[in-house]
Amino acid sequence: MKRIYGTAILLFSISISTAYSADVVDELLQEYKTAGAVDFSEDKGEALWMSKEKDRSCTSCHTNSVKNVGKHQKTGKEIKPMAPSVNAERLTEKKKVKKWLLRNCKWVFKRECTAQEKGDILTWLRKQ
Ligand code: HEC
Q1: CA-based nearest residue to 121, from 78, 92, 91, 94
Q2: Per residue in 68-88, pLDDT tens?
Q3: How far is it, in rounded angstroms, from Cα 31 to Cα 21?
Q4: Ligand 1 in contact with 104 (CB < 6 A)?
Q5: Distance 69 CA to ligand 1 centre (A)
């Protein structure tokens, strides 16, 4: 009996977390639109992700494929794949996505990304 309860709870939490993961990106895109962004572009998001600023790029740590395990350029620490198709935990936590977009845009571009840029990146990344 206990086991059945356990399984039911497990299935229930899985269904909540998958429903939630789609919502997080949708919510962020809505926020970016409120901040003035217009239609988001997967192509622009990908181009931005692959672009190089001096010797820095999103690919510096996340590698040329978002499906690969990455490596922090400075600390050498392993970074799990960014693509939600191989790492279901990605883009499921709003606070985390915001925090890292802020930090990583600053590191790569020496400035914050605009609402448009962040939306383009997430629109591309969520489909990977
Ligand atoms: C200096 C290394 C480094 C660079 C360069 C970098 N990242 Fe990251 N990124 C990280 C680390 C470390 C984490 C958090 C660790 C983890 O989640 O595995 C992370 C996490 C993220 C996340 C959170 C994803 C989630 O939901 O878990 C996003 C989004 C992200 N990065 C986007 C970018 C973008 C966009 C760029 C380029 C502008 C970029 N990163 C460049 C190191 C980097």
Answers
A1: 91
A2: 999 998 899 999 999 999 999
A3: 16
A4: yes
A5: 12
